[in-house]
Specification:
six-stranded parallel β-sheet; 2 domains; 15% strand; binds 1,4-dihydronicotinamide adenine dinucleotide; six-stranded mixed β-sheet; 12 strands; 46% helix; alpha/beta
Length: 340
Amino acid sequence: MWQQNYEGVFFLQDRASGFKAIIAIDNTRLGPALGGCRMWQYDSDEAAVTDALRLAKGMTYKSAISGLTYGGGKAVILSHPGQGAREQLFRTLGRYIDKLQGHYITGMDLGTTVADMDRIRETTSYVTDVSGSLGAVNDLTATMTAYGVFLGIRASMKRVFGMESTLGRTIAVQGLGKVGYRLCRYLREDGAYLVVTDIDPERVKQAATDFGATPCKPEAILSVPCDVFAPCALGGILNDAALKRLDCRIVAGAANNQLAEARHGEKLRELGILYAPDYVINAGGIIVTGSELGGGDAAEAKRNVEKIYGTLTNVYETAAATGTSTSAAADRMTEDILRK
Ligand code: NAI
C-alpha cells in the first residue's frame, strides 16, 4: 500500500514566528485532496514527515473506498505555541493552503479544534469544520465516525458469529476520546458489555458510571478476553508484540493506521482474527465532510455513513473469495477504484 508515490510534499517554515508544518498531498485523481490538520509533538522532523505521508495516503484510500470524489492529503504542524501565537500559526497555515488553490482542503484532526479551523478560514476558504459547519455542530464528525465504527462492528459480528447484535458480547475499547466515548454509548445501547481504558483515569471513571463499563489499565487492554477489540486511540497498535497478546475474534475500531506494517494484516488472518481495515470502518468523519462540501445535510450524511456496513461486508467477502487478508483485499479494491 505505501508505495512512495506522492503528488507533493511541502515543508513550511517561518523562523520568526516558530511556524513549522508539512502538507502532504498523496493523490488528487478523484478530486481535491481532503484530510485534516494534526498538531502533535513529534520526536523528530522525520517522524512528522512519516506520519504526514502515511496519513495522507490513508485519506486517499478512505475517500476512494467510501465512494467520495476526493483525494487524500494531510497537514501536520510541529510547533506547540501559546494561545496568541497559536492563532497566528493557523492563519499562516491558511495562507500556505490558499497558495495550493484548492488542491488541498483541510479540517480538524488530533490536536486541533474548531477555533483553529476558524483562524485558517480567515486566510483561505479551503477548510472545513469551521464554526457552524455540518461537521462541527454537536461534533457530528466524531459522532458519525463512532456510528460508522459501530455499524462496522455489527457487520463484523455478522461475519464471525452469524448475528450482528452485540447483545451480551464483550467489547474492549482502547481510548475514550471524542470517538471512543461515543462508540461506547452506541454499543451499550445495543446491549454490549464494555471493558474500557484510557490514559486519562477520569474518562475511565465516567465510562464506568455512564455505561457500567469495567475499567482496565492501559497496558492490559490488549490481553482482555473479548469478542471485539476496538482501538480508538493512536495508530501502530497492531504490531508483533500486540498480536501475541490479543484474545479476541475481531479487531474493529476508529484509530487510523492501526497496522504497524502491512504484514500484520496477514498475521491477523493467520491468527483467525477478523480485522476491519481502519480506513473502511472509520470513514464516517470524511463522509460527513464529503456531504458538507456537496451541500448535503445531516440526514444525508448519516445515510452515506450507513453504507460502511455494506462496504465492509464486501471487503470481507472479497478477502474470503481470494484467500487474502482483509487489509490486502481492501487495498486491492481501493487501488482498482483509483485506476479506473
Ligand atoms: P481524541 O484525542 O479525542 O481521543 C483519543 C483518546 O485516546 C484520548 O482520550 C486519549 O487520552 C486516549 N489515549 C491516548 N493514548 C492512549 C493509550 N495508550 N491507551 C489508552 N488511551 C489512550 O481522538 P478521537 O477524535 O477520539 O480519535 C481517536 C482515533 O480515531 C484517532 O486515531 C483518530 O485519528 C481516529 N479517527 C478520528 C476521527 C474523528 O472523527 N475524530 C475520524 C477518523 C479516525
